[in-house]
Design goal:
Shape: globular
Helix content: 25-40%
Largest sheet: 6 strands, antiparallel
Length: about 450
């Protein structure tokens, strides 16, 4: 390390410790809102916070969520109604208290698999009225300032996103009409309590796994609910894989690509929001090297965070949740396990790349997105700016070893970051700058920090 680099590094603030003090819920808004105004860390989380495993079984995931600096967690229940299909919100209460203590805002998932129809006794999906009752009960109880929180003296905290029926297109045994009625009832029940709450179908898998933009027919079945706004958006689970879904082939193999194809297949005219409650890079076979997997994960992470609307410049992403932050591989094998150790949790290189992004830009907001051409994003906050470049063939129109970038007039020094941390610190100036000597096939981040004097000048303006 040179003396100049050491001196520059000394000026970089240390990453703040993540507080475990309960936080206020970030307002959800509706699909027409400017999602670019939502800070990055309020889009990121993980799951599952399984309701019947509150306590010691959840510790690893909470440690992981707070360890990366996320603010959200998917809360999954397998016991949210009884055999007569009556809602049982008490199933959530211990888990909700635990989430609040850990400062993680829950995203509710009411689990239902097609296999439940064939249990003994069978558990059919139920009617519109069954799901309306569930939506109404859970929204009334757990929304911000809902009855559950008021009973415990908690204000400004609660659930703003409600999802149901995870990956129906995998087993594909739920009748399409019954699936549509269930989601219609659920959405109407939630919105009967508060029309501003977001309701989303549980994630779909088959655009990713089978290239099916109709999601085995479940997409067209709910197209009218998406078009009318009763459902806020589409949740797509994207698992990049060297053989089956290789992002190295370019942006056609991407979360954005699937999102665009699904919207087209459903004939949607409304500009729906994008959700991803599961995504990851498979660290197996050709991508088994942990450093390669982490490098690819950083590209996939920004692919998810930077999904755009139909105008190709406005943010569409509400949630981007990697799977599985807590697993060391003993639960589901090594491919998507993002923990190197447990009790205490220790991140693997993919999780470290995620933590790095939230350390650098967790409190920033998108101010420019150009994924289609330059493959760049810009985020800004009070302390500075982050520029992102997807320097991979098919992800930018000018891949190579030099990044030509326009910087604001206040820029003096810039930090170049890769998936594995800080690469170098360089002097820069306002206007066009050329950063050479870069490696190809990587995603880069350029961090500009405002000095205290510059921040004070900005606040006075």
């Amino acid at each position: 390390m040179t003396a100049a680099l050491a001196a520059a590094l000394a000026l970089i603030p240390a990453a703040p410790l993540v507080s475990r003090v309960p936080v206020q819920a970030q307002p959800a808004g509706r699909a027409g809102d400017d999602l670019g105004a939502v800070p990055l860390r309020w889009r990121v989380g993980g799951g599952n916070l399984v309701t019947h495993l509150a306590g010691a079984e959840s510790r690893q995931l909470y440690t992981a969520l707070t360890g990366i600096g996320a603010r959200l967690g998917r809360m999954d229940s397998y016991g949210w109604r009884d055999l007569a299909r009556r809602p049982t919100p008490q199933d959530f209460e211990a888990a909700m208290r635990e989430a609040h203590r850990n400062g993680i805002v829950p995203i509710i998932l009411l689990e239902y698999e097609g296999s439940y129809q064939f249990l003994d006794p069978p558990q059919p999906i139920g009617s519109y009225d069954d799901w309306y009752a569930a939506g109404r009960v859970y929204a009334e109880r757990f929304r911000p300032d809902g009855t559950f929180w008021r009973e415990h003296g908690i204000r400004g905290f609660g659930v703003t996103v409600y999802t149901a029926i995870n990956e129906p297109d995998v087993q594909a045994t739920i009748p399409h009409a019954a699936y549509r009625d269930a989601l219609a009832g659920f959405a109407d029940g939630v919105h009967s309590i508060d029309p501003a709450l977001r309701v989303v179908p549980g994630g779909f898998a088959t655009c990713n796994s089978h290239g099916d933009a109709t999601l085995r027919g479940y997409g067209p079945a709910i197209a009218d609910l998406l078009e009318s706004g009763r459902l806020d958006g589409i949740d797509l689970h994207t698992y990049y894989n060297a053989r089956w879904f290789p992002l190295t082939r370019g942006r056609t193999v991407s979360a954005q690509g699937c999102f665009d194809r699904v919207k087209a297949a459903l004939g949607l005219r409304r500009d729906v929001a994008f959700y991803a409650t599961e995504f990851n890079v498979a660290q197996v076979e050709d991508w088994a090297d942990p450093r390669l997997a982490a490098s690819l994960f950083l590209t996939g992470l920004w692919d998810h965070l930077g999904v755009v609307r139909a105008d190709r410049r406005s943010s569409a992403t509400v949630l981007a949740f990697p799977w599985n932050l807590a697993d060391t591989g003993r639960i589901e094998g090594p491919a998507y396990a993002m923990a190197a150790a447990e009790d205490p949790w220790r991140p693997d290189l993919r999780a470290e790349a995620l933590r790095l992004v939230l350390d650098l830009a967790g409190d920033m907001r998108f101010t420019a997105l150009d994924p289609d051409r330059s493959g760049t994003y810009r985020l800004e906050g009070e302390d500075g700016m982050l520029l992102v470049w997807q320097n991979r063939p098919g992800w930018t129109d000018r891949p190579g070893r030099t990044w030509t970038v326009e910087l604001p007039g206040w820029a003096r020094m810039a930090e170049l970051w890769g998936f594995d941390g800080l690469r170098r610190v360089v002097p820069v100036h306002g206007g066009m700058n050329e950063l050479g000597g870069l490696a190809e096939n990587e995603t880069y981040m350029l961090r500009l920090r405002r000095t205290e004097e510059q921040r004070e000048q900005g606040s006075r303006r």
